[in-house]
Design goal:
The structure holds 2 protein chains of 2 kinds.
Chain A: H1 3-9, H2 11-29, H3 33-55, H4 76-107, H5 112-123
Chain B: H1 5-26, H2 31-56, E1 59-62, E2 73-76, H3 78-105, H4 111-130, H5 134-153, H6 158-189, H7 194-207, H8 209-226, H9 236-242, H10 245-270, H11 275-278, H12 281-301, H13 306-327, H14 330-361, H15 372-375, H16 377-391, H17 397-411, H18 415-441, H19 456-474, H20 477-486
Antiparallel strand pairs in B: 1-2
Helix pairs in contact in B: 1-2, 1-4, 2-3, 2-4, 3-4, 3-10, 3-14, 3-19, 3-20, 4-5, 4-10, 5-6, 5-10, 6-7, 6-8, 6-9, 7-8, 8-10, 9-10, 9-13, 10-13, 10-14, 12-13, 12-18, 13-14, 13-17, 14-16, 14-17, 14-19, 14-20, 16-18, 16-19, 17-18, 17-19
Chain lengths: 124, 489
Amino acid sequence: MELIPKLINNSYYFAAMILFVIGFHTMLTHSNLIKKIIGMNIMDTSIFLFFVSIGYVRGGRAPIIQEGAGFLYVNPLPSALILTGIVVAVSVTAFALSLIVKLYAHYGTVDADEIALIRAREER
Amino acid sequence: MYLHVPVLIVVLLLAASYTVPLLDRFRRSLALPITILSLITAFISSLYLLYLIGVRGPFAYHLGGWPPPWGIELYIDYLAVYMLIVISSIGLLIMIYGAKDLLHEISREVLSWYYTLYLLLMASMMGIALTNDLFNLFVFVEISAIASCGIISAKADRRCIEASIKYLILSALGSGCILLAVAMIYMITGNLNFDYVAAALPDALKLYPYNIVIALGLFVVGFGVKSALFPLHVWLPDAHSSAPSPSSAILSGLVIKIYAVALVKLLFRVFPAQIYDVIPILDIILFLSVFAVMAGSIFAMVQDDLKRMLAYSSIAQIGYIFMGIGLFGGRALTGGLLHIFNHAMMKSMLFLAAGLIIYATGIRNLKDLKGIGVRMPWTMGAFTIGALSMVGIPGTSGFISKWFLALGALDLNRPFYVAIILLSSLLNGIYYFPIIIDAFFGTKMNPVSEFRDVPALMLIPVLILAAGVIFFGFYPKPLLDLVSKAISF
């Protein structure tokens, strides 16, 4: 029964992992392409949360150094990295959505299974 | 000044990629020459780097003068330079071919954007080869993921768009895994630089073994998806077969391998050797590679589309590279890494030759290719050399890498893998030889309504690659020297 206190102590990590699995599962199992992209964003966001929570120090403040104040600061590096990560995730999302728009223009649906059906019918 | 060359290669290609669309607006005729020129410069710089590390040994470059652990570090060793030469030489030849081929495959409006994506892809692959920083690695991996999806969907055909989105989603899944793995590593070591992480991991392994095992698993899955390791290959056949021919050539020839190289760097330079006692990751990779080698060939046999068959053959060939990684004996790894260059030559040549056939006749179906060798002797001649090299006939470069893989397997007392290599070579023969026999000795070709003459500019890169396959088949020494230095981690 030492698992539960451990989980409570690491609740940020635990929440991030649950979100990661939700996103991963959505991405792989849903046939609706928009839902896949939503899943991708949930997954990416969970990693960002995880990364940022690594750098968090309880009671720490933003790392703007004041001489002699002796405050506790949070680690700024993960936040800086995640800024890049967010930019990447946004551009991937934009690209994916634009491809889906084009796909919708061709097939009239955003469901991967239906698209496969339409193609199979055409090839026959 | 000359020490800035490694970063300048990447920066030059990035700068060129942003200049090309501007030129398209004001001086359209300059877009292509600038692209080719920057690729040539990158190739020459790569050769210069080879000379440089021959003189002064592997060296590190600190971006912006910030030393690690604060700054990003590039590490220029033999593995990085080997990959730079592979990428820049093959990439240059493909672009020379593409100069003419792309005119009829994609519309004029997006042509310069295609050059942009191509240069971005080249820059990011070179970045992956050079970087010594985990987060920088992730950024380059993402750039190359978007750029490679872009050069598939540049052809505004609905099959390309469908293949592209499939690739993008699975690729994003892989990137997510890689980023989470980076987070896991950063969490326990507090560093992103490969050398610092490698120094911290042996101690961390005792305290937090699960984190490291999870990170390792996520890296293998992430890079496995991107390099189409067998059960994670589902996106590859669609993506590589529907794309424009130059895109197919660069995706099959270079892009899937650079991720394998990234995995090699991580497995052997970052993770401590003790991790293999905790989890037999190399055996898992070996196990999957055996399936890849067999299944790729078996799937390729039942295809009737030429480019689709070549795409499935790529899945089998990437299996050899992973087999070299999984065996991890001196000569087996040499064979695996050698196969990166050899397969890059063969497969890009085969895809370009397929592109030439499609350009000239519009035929994609294997059954309609009867007698094509009489009409297109040079193209099919090159195709034949590529096919023989795929099977591993002595005198072609494909033989050398398979020979070293087999020798390496024997060194490690694992003759089972020699049998696998032999069997898979036979399987390769089963689907390549009928094409060649049909092409040259088949009955008269069906009358094709339109038969276009192939421009010399498109034929020359194919012939250079064919000559390369023969040359390195008879004289592999310079490559072997380079690769044997590259695997001394």
